[in-house]
Fold:
Amino acid sequence: MKKMSVFFVLLGLVISIVLTGCSFNKESEQTGAKEVTKNESVDLSKVTLRVGQTGWGTLQEALKAAGLEDTPYKVEYSVFQGGNLILEAMTAGHVDFGITSEIPPLFSSLAQNGEHSKVIAIQQSNTLQQELVVAKGSHIKSVADLKGKKVAYVQNTTAHYFLIKMLEDAGLTWNDIKPVQLTTSDGLAALLGGNVDALASYGNAIISAHQKGATTLATAKDILSGDFQVNALKEAISDPGKHAAIVDLLDRVNQAYKWQRENPEKWAKIVGAETKQPYDQAFQTFKDGEEQRPTRIIPLSDSKTDSQQDIANVFHNTGIINKKINVTTFWNHEFDQELSKIVDQ
Structure:
């Protein structure tokens, strides 16, 4: 009888263990990657997150200004002249995280090892400082006047896309101009040096061009969606420590954006110092941008997919991309639930 009692006790323990295991597996299947960030065994102090930025250290400086730079993990920041260069570095395995426009991921997906970078979230922002400009004293007064002219642009970026759209609106095609592929800084130098007739660019290049007397030929304000894509290295997404660090960083970035809105004067001083522009100009640009569309990071959605798919179709129809692209193939939804809890709706 005693042996029988021991048998039933052991049997009960086995059943309990099995049921517990089933319950854990079921919960893990339902939560997916969310389970990773709740894993208390992850030691973030041993994690190093490599972050790519464009133009200047916007993310780094925003976190610092908002008092949010003291992360439990180490962050290594690098600055690139364009989102296309961030994804090139990511494809090579040198960057874990970076924010780009909708265009670079299209071309990255076609490159060798392009599948290693994935779109994990959207940063909604404004569409200012994305322009087609001509140098001071230029006789070119309209986009139509660019026929047969040299136009500098930054390949595989918003500048590439909005230049195509501007030409179409003026009744021209890509073949009607002499496109010159240059970086943002080289394109600016070429414009100011008279080596090209116009420049399609963004950010600091446009700010500097205007400071040197350049005038706007056309603006991409109503052409671009204002959606910028948060990209992550595939290996970083699957790594428990880096995955958790990315979620934490995105939360901090959203808080930093909120701080900017609450402290526009302080942020304008930082921007002015970094971009070498007058405080009043930096303040007005920030104010105008936030009025147009406040900057924040949100989870992926079908409407955002449609926006990028339209761009992919434009590049394909004009022959810039020689194959059709389904953008959903490089979107990763493992962060959706986590981001929905940290986004300030």
About this structure: The longest strand covers residues 117-124. The CA atoms of residues 66 and 259 lie 6 Å apart.
